[in-house]
Amino acid sequence: MTEQHVPSREEIETVIRGVVEPTSGRSLLDIGQIEACQIAAGRIRLTLAVAPALAARLEKSASAAEQALDRAFPEWRASVLLTAHRPTAPRPEPKAGGGHRPLGGVGNKDASEPLLPQVRTVIAVSSGKGGVGKSTTAVNLAAGLALEGLSVGLMDADVHGPSLPRMLGISGRPEVRDGKLIPVEAWGLKAMSIGMLVDETQAMVWRGPMVMGAIGQLLGDVAWGELDVLVIDMPPGTGDAQLTLAQKAVLSGAIIVSTPQDIALLDARRGVAMFEKTRVPVLGLVENMSYFCCPNCNHRTELFGHGGARDEARRLDVPFLGEIPLLADIRLSADEGAPIVVRAPQSEAAKAYRSLAAGVAGVVRKLPHRQ
């Protein structure tokens, strides 16, 4: 069997240099600067930094660059993403493991060393807006995957609102060993959150570069070890943190959490569009708070409507992964620090999360390994 050729950065730059922007007649590589180049898991992810005034005009050239890379390396799927930054004053060359390191430490001296080398698949649990139950879904999905027999890690990337320690009942700081943070084990998971490193009441008043630096450290400065899947609880929205994870983590896929009402679905739509732009496969949509069952009479009430996420999944041509009910027990289990799939495995909510986890586990087992 012929071994797959892994393109080098130099080969990729040569292809990009051959793409000409029609208005100026200049090479795309002369107009923009390569900010990140990720080559793994059958995908080439290239990020070009360009002047803000040129970003809209260069979209067609970015698409042409993707097509050129697809032709040059047919065994690889390429994505070219444009980022626009205001010009800044020159900065000195970063030291080993440099850049923004809000969590301290010196980091990896070898910048070429791949992130998460022993993690087979990385799945992002995302939402276009806050307040839809994304973190609760991520925690119970991760615990459910562990119950499916997978080795699972759970990373809290919501730097501004880290809720994972409370939801898992974790207190105290993680151990540091050989310069690496050791994930805390709880409920069959390896878990890490910036909430384990700061006081619970401390406000993380950080700009984008600090947030991106912290996420990079949670990926690279944590001894995750061998995992079948790392579930990342994403921050809400479509900003710097999501772009950093798309660039650095080489995401295997993304799950979008929404509630049924139209306003939440609008934001979920943006989340799907973001992952499609960064060439991250969308594994499906989950409808959270889908319905409410009265604990006294079992009467079912659809407080936020019903079926909106299913219809949206059909419209976007992505899988629909299931419905999660709105129940007080879900909130109670999160407040008490025990995922409901473990705390009350026979409950309606636990069965819904277990069904979701079983479906995702089947997908994970079929996904190609990152390395």
From TrEMBL:
Pfam hit, one: ParA
Domain of life from the UniProt record: Bacteria
Entry's transmembrane regions: none
GO MF terms held by the record: 4 iron, 4 sulfur cluster binding; ATP binding; ATP hydrolysis activity; ATP-dependent FeS chaperone activity; metal ion binding
UniProt biased composition (Gly residues): 96-107
Region listing for Disordered, in residue ranges: 85-111
Binding positions (ATP): G128, K129, G130, G131, V132, G133, K134, S135
Residue intervals of the MIP18 family-like domain: 9-75
Summary of the function given for this chain in its UniProt record: Binds and transfers iron-sulfur (Fe-S) clusters to target apoproteins. Can hydrolyze ATP.
Assembly and interaction partners: Homodimer.
HAMAP family in the record: Mrp_NBP35
Family according to the record: In the C-terminal section; belongs to the Mrp/NBP35 ATP-binding proteins family. Belongs to the Mrp/NBP35 ATP-binding proteins family.
Name the UniProt record assigns to this protein: Iron-sulfur cluster carrier protein
Organism whose genome encodes this protein: Acetobacter aceti NBRC 14818
